[in-house]
Amino acid sequence: MKNNTRLNRGGFLIDKPGGKYYKAFAHYLVKFLDAYKANGVPIWGLTMENEPLHSDPNYSFNSLGFTAELQRDFIKQDLGPILEEAGYGVNTTKLMIFDDNINQLLQWAQTILADRDAAKYISGT
């Protein structure tokens, strides 16, 4: 599902938010939440991606890159509505943005939270 076809070494999801790969990733996150819930472990919150800045092709760990704009659009077009439809809306499951280094936190928060359609799904950072 990544443009570099590898689990590691950076890369982004193929296509753009609203497309089938972004929707598949959102549904995968719901399956993760469902599996824990089915085993008696409710999840109170999640970040949609750990360290989204790691899109560098030299990064040797499992990774998936996002820009602030991609994360914003993925949240409002795919992840937010799909979480809500599956029963994991803001009243039950907290969605947090930008799980990464603090030096870009303000820029990401401004980009994502300034968009009302994305911000309505976000509980924090």
From TrEMBL:
It catalyses: a beta-D-glucosyl-(1<->1')-N-acylsphing-4-enine + H2O = an N-acylsphing-4-enine + D-glucose. Its EC number is 3.2.1.45. It holds the Pfam family Glyco_hydro_30. GO terms for biological process: glucosylceramide catabolic process. Signal peptide: none annotated. GO terms for cellular component: membrane. SUPFAM superfamilies: (Trans)glycosidases. Residues 2-124 form the Glycosyl hydrolase family 30 TIM-barrel domain. GO terms for molecular function: glucosylceramidase activity. Keywords: Glycosidase, Hydrolase, Lipid metabolism, Signal, Sphingolipid metabolism. Belongs to the glycosyl hydrolase 30 family. This is Glucosylceramidase. It comes from Oppiella nova.
